[in-house]
Amino acid sequence: MKEALPEYARDIKLNLGGLINASPLSEQQLWGAVVAVALASPAGEGSAELVEEGRRRLSDAAFAGAKAAAAVMAMNNIYYRAKHLLADAGAGEYADIPARLRMNVIATRQGVEKADFELWCVVVSAVNGCGSCLAAHERELRSAGMSTTQIHEGLRIAAVVHAACATLASEEALTGV
Fold it and tell me: Do 57 and 27 meet the contact criterion of CB atoms below 8 Å apart?
């Protein structure tokens, strides 16, 4: 994937290598975050390659957990970001209405550790720009004992992996390759 990034995205290429080669996260946390972000990013060869690499590096349960985090947060990030934006615009009456959205996977976590699943929820929420979800899942990570450094690394993964996937998807669209 790094070789496919164009020269104008050299910083992304360098940052991608740095993330993968030196992380304070466990292998499962790192690759689960990469998979979750790739699934939350524009589809293309880059995101598909990262998901496939994550598939090789993760257990079946962790791979399913990363995919589940990406899926449930795709739904939750839209819903909770919209409620937050409406409240900011003066429409606070939506705050007390129950979501009535199924999100059982947050409790079951596909059988992975709570901290790992919560980290994957944070990275997807960062990509999708949902402040409410970021704050809620960051609190859960803190209560699970994750450090600021580890959470920060998740944010770096979200930024760099999303940028790499978006850049490659744009290049594919522009060149037809």
Answer: yes
